[in-house]
Amino acid sequence: MAIANAAASDSVAQRWLGWLPELVVPENRRATLLAKGPGRGLPWANTEQWFLIAIERASGRIVGAVGIIKQRQEVGGWLAPAFRARGLGRELFHGAVTFAHHHLGLATVRAGAEITNSASIGALTSAGFIPTTGPDWHQLPDGRVVPTQWFRHDTERPTTCR
């Protein structure tokens, strides 16, 4: 998770994510972490949130991550700076809905985006999310309150894997 967190610790990502300082990887450690392949740390377990980590096959480097909060039926994700603006956000969100619908058994998955985050909104809509209702405002972990637009992705036949 340290490598995945490094992928979203730059100021551009944090504008949208607003993580608490203890989750943001210091700038002097980011390049070293992002140069590593995954799987070199301790297992990380979180029973409230599932993470899918995208890895570039050629280099073995982490591209980004997407988290799924099953209880709230919500997803959110990020890409490392070197992998942004390539259409990979669509792939991340597509993987998230496939996992949520066909492994976690969720019929509907929701995602919120800050209304000026065109990259996130574009990735969600290109992954098949459609606009839906939701709170007009969202408080980020760092306390900032941002205006939001909400999306959903549905399936008629959710399944679980056991």
TrEMBL record:
N-acetyltransferase domain ranges (all copies): 1-156
Gene Ontology MF: a single term: acyltransferase activity, transferring groups other than amino-acyl groups
Gene3D superfamilies: 3.40.630.30
TM helices/strands, residue ranges: none
SUPFAM superfamilies in the record: Acyl-CoA N-acyltransferases (Nat) (SSF55729)
InterPro entries in UniProt: Acyl_CoA_acyltransferase, GNAT_dom
Protein name: N-acetyltransferase domain-containing protein
Species whose genome carries this gene: Amycolatopsis taiwanensis
Lineage: Bacteria, Bacillati, Actinomycetota, Actinomycetes, Pseudonocardiales
